[in-house]
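Changelog-linked ticket: pyridoxal-5'-phosphate example.
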Amino acid sequence: MDIQDIDTVRAWVDVDLGALVANYRSLEERANPRVGMLPIVKADAYGLGVRGVLQALEPLEPWGYGVAALSEARALRELGIARRILLLFPTLEELRAAVELEVTPAIGDPATLVRWRELARQADRRLSFHLEVDTGMGRAGFLSTEVERWLPEVLEAAAEVEWEGTFTHFHSAEVEDERPTREQWERFRACIGRFPNGSGGLLHASGTAAALRWPDYSLDLVRPGIFLYGARVVTGLPAPRPVAAVRARVTALKDVPAGWTASYGATFRSSSASRWATLALGYGDGLRRELSNRGSALFGDEVAPIIGRVCMDVTVVDVTDLEGVEPGSVATVVGGDPAGPASLEMVAELCGTIPYEILTGLTGRLPRLYAPARSGSGARSGGAAGEREGYGGP
Ligand SMILES: *Cc1c(COP(=O)(O)O)cnc(C)c1O
């Protein structure tokens, strides 16, 4: 987006690419994978905009990128990404195009393996795949306990298609109880222990939580997502720097008497004369309705409670006790200090969900504005107007 247009934007997502790069580096250092990093950029880089995120990640030379859908792999190729792309959840229908795009599917069932071999024969190319092993996640992968049943088929396939890697996925790496992850790890090890020497390729198991909590399980590649994007999902371990902040401008201010009501259903009523501000942000932008009468907006360090129901396009906040809020003032509605009332983690908690869903729920109506990685510190405050020169991005 042009700087020119940015001046007319009512609400947006600030993405601090310097923080994203810092998060990548700190995770890489902690997990220390033997071969490299496989950052996960599915769902438009967790809602932050894959194009801007890739601008920050490419200079770090990751081993490859992980995506969920073929359309995401195609977007990466169209952006000029030449690295490996691991397609985590291919459908049979996506495989043909995966060949053309030189995308590597994760394969964890016989039908997909058969189809990939067929396509390799047709293309007369040595296509590659990563084998997924199900150690308890139950959603994809050959069952680790049935390795004797499927291994012959995989080895036979490996004569035609390159078995480039083998991975599993932990279901509870972020929780205190270590037993489920240990059990999955043991299942994975037992399974790959059955592979003939030299087969199985690159081994990987860890997303964010395991990479943080179980660096011993890093193997060849780690597959972090949410940590890069600035959400804390494991307590008591290095926290990521916040990356995303949802900002919105004030469209209007009004002074209301005691007993005035706010928004649909009149679920909020002023107890005394008050000043209310309307923010140009609603559930049509991805601001969750669960924040009605519960969430907060920040003007600098000052807190303005959300009052009444979040509407599709606007949200009312109480600014009675705040100085200097005017039409056009900018509020932070998601983001800011991780311990603060509008932090991504707090918003997720208030909504009874996880930061992943808050980020991926931000809609296309909000432009993503990127503070470039080279600025390093990412110390821009508050998203105040006049600090926008540094933005690049689409
Ligand atoms: C989404 C995903 C990841 C990334 O998980 P985070 O918790 O965001 O780090 C890693 N591996 C697989 C298979 C995934 O689906």
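Closing comment: Example verified and attached. The longest strand covers residues 244-256. The two ends are 5 Å apart (CA to CA).
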